[in-house]
Amino acid sequence: METLESLHHQVRVCQWCILSQSRKNAVPGEGPERADIMFIGEGPGFHEDQQGRPFVGPAGQFLNELLASIGLRREQVYITNVVKCRPPGNRDPQPEEIHACRPYLERQIQLIQPKLIVTLGRHSMAWFFPNAQISKIRGQPKKIGGIIYFPMYHPAAALHQPKWRRVIEEDFKRIPQLLREIERLVEEEPSAPTRAEQLGLF
């Protein structure tokens, strides 16, 4: 049977797209195989490419602070990106690059089976909500197939535009409540007020 470790090895030697030609290290992701929470960013940056680990640069330091603010350590969650190799110059990942990495992210979700997936940034959000605008759906959890998806701005947004820091911090503080409620969320008839609606899910 495939394990998370074997999947990580496949990512490290992957040659499926042009990003493999310029990377120093592929960045599969890290965290426990049965993590309740999975964070999905957009793509590795300079520091991640150097170390082969996700979110270890300035945005990663902010993510660590956010986790600490709700009583979590990064060792308790799984962290990865939509694309596993750094786009040159930290440009946006191209559609064909996202497509090439898609099987890896799908298998990570299948293996980890998280209760909550937090998307960080618009490219991560678009993977699950292709026609949505992040400014309109950020901070609004949605249940799909037994998993709660919670779109947020990328932590790097707060580094580039400090006005987003408070927004990100406020959204992050909702995570413990979501985890507490996930076990009680049940599928109900659309005509009846659902527990999800009471929680502000859409």
Structure description:
The protein has one domain: Uracil-DNA glycosylase-like domain (Uracil-DNA Glycosylase, subunit E), CATH 3.40.470. Helix content is 44%, strand content 11%. It has helices spanning 4-12, 19-22, 46-51, 58-69, 95-112, 122-128, 134-137, 155-160, 163-172, 175-182, 195-198, and strands at residues 37-41, 78-81, 116-120, 142-144, 147-152. A five-stranded mixed sheet has the order 2-1-3-5-4, with helices on both faces. Strand 4 and strand 5 form a beta hairpin. It is globular and about 40 Å long.
Fraction of residues in helices? 40-55%
Count of alpha/pi helices: 11
The percentage of residues in β strands lies in: 5-15%
Anisotropy-based shape: globular
In short:
With 202 residues, this protein is α/β, with parallel strands linked by helices. The chain is 44% helix and 11% strand. It has a five-stranded mixed sheet, with helices on both faces.
Reconstruct the topology from this structure:
Blueprint: H1 4-12, H2 19-22, E1 37-41, H3 46-51, H4 58-69, E2 78-81, H5 95-112, E3 116-120, H6 122-128, H7 134-137, E4 142-144, E5 147-152, H8 155-160, H9 163-172, H10 175-182, H11 195-198
Parallel strand pairs: 1-2, 1-3, 3-5
Antiparallel strand pairs: 4-5
Key phrases:
single chain; 202 residues; alpha/beta; 11 helices
